[in-house]
Amino acid sequence: MKAYDGMYIGGAWRPAAGQDVIEVVNPVDEQVIGTVPAGTAEDVDAAVRAARDALPGWAATPPAERAARLAALRDGLVARADEIAETVTAELGSPLKFSQAVHAAVPIAVAGSYAELAATYSFEEKTGNSVVHHEPIGVVAAITPWNYPLHQIVAKVAPALAAGCTIVVKPAEDTPLVARLFAEAVHEAGVPAGVFNLVTGLGPVAGQALAEHPGVDLVSFTGSTAVGRRIAAIAAGQIKKVALELGGKSANVILPTADLAKAVNVGVANVMSNSGQTCSAWTRMLVHRDRYDEAVELAVTAAAKYGDRIGPVVNAKQRDRVRGYIEKGVAEGARLVAGGPEAPRETGFFVSPTVFADVTEDMTIAQEEIFGPVLSILKYEDEEDALRIANGTVYGLAGAVWAGDETEAVAFARRMDTGQVDINGGRFNPLAPFGGYKQSGVGRELGVHGLAEYLQTKSLQF
Q1: Residues sharing a CB contact under 8 Å with residue 193, sequence separation 6 or more, in sequence order
Q2: 451: which of 133, 174, 344, 435 is 20 to 30 A away, CA to CA?
Q3: How do residues 15-33 score in pLDDT, each as one tens digit?
Q4: 245 is catalytic
Q5: pLDDT range class, residue 1, cuts 50, 70, 90
Q6: Computed over its alpha carbons, how large is the radius of gyration of the chain?
Q7: 63-79 and 81-92 are packed helices; what angle lies between their axes, rounded to 10 degrees?
């Protein structure tokens, strides 16, 4: 175990204002692997002040130079890729191969995309007799989750720096170690002092102090809808902009003409990925009544392959929460066809890959975000019924449509109330905007749309 000291504020590691620490626990063996300082409002204030002091200089830095710093940051992440993967595996419990392929590789790709975008984006445009300037919004507070700990940091920091903003990051208390690696890479990339700052701490203390700070111009938060509501309420009191990426209950709609085996296998893999701890996971599989029984059999077979291939969930509280949902599914009448609430191992925060059949749309497991390896399979009568069920939750983050004809799938996808839809297994695109409809959030991340969240406009008339 290693005790990590200090906060990264104003370009250097500084002692924390208080003496309290946060223990970081390995979810596989439940052992403490390190501690980090539990930041206070005093630490947050110092970080925001540093960001505020650095803002004029960084905002005035030519975009080409900001792009160069981002490119250097990407290179620093590449050099640390193995250490990043090992760190995420230790603090999140993700299998090492997944950590290498996703937790390390995706943030590198995102950082590189913003290095290119900063160099090519037009921060000025002419319309009629006006010139419109796209300027940095100011100091950003980034409050990030534990499920994709580095990706969510990079998805906020990279566009903020590209825009000319300065930023304070408060990472999730369960996974703060990879954030410290990121701070080291930022420092080595030559990002000026105060442009990036890192404060570790608990959400109700450091997170709330950051959201409430009058020196913050934008709060970018990824996490639960409940906390998102709280942050939005705080920001509203100061007329402060928010970017919220919240929960999801995404539908995987398999139309009758689809390749059923492929759609089910990919759908199960999507839900089990990262132990089900993905806000955009397709946790509701919608299948036509004529192919329903076959789909259930395929899903059971597919889920069996993940028994020893997925890691644990992040902590004991999350494990108990997921098991509680499984128990509720059984109690409400869903048919448990794979997995269950019983612990698959004596040690670690593991949950069995679980599949429910005969799920109706009014059941809790069909409406609420579980955030674990749990799939609900629902039956529909026709295409209109499938659309009604797909759109029948408070969420609208992501989804999928499968059909034999791509045109058919696209036509259905256009009617879904959701921010992102994969067609016949479409691949992740780090340049495409990510974000949701309804209670899944406000704003977008990634690509040019993600950059726009950190800009404000000023028009000059001639």
Answers
A1: 10, 11, 12, 50, 54
A2: 174
A3: 999 999 999 999 999 999 9
A4: yes
A5: confident
A6: 22
A7: 70
pTM of the model: 0.97
Catalytic-labelled residue, pool 173, 245, 361, 408: 245
Structure tokens at 306: 């993940």
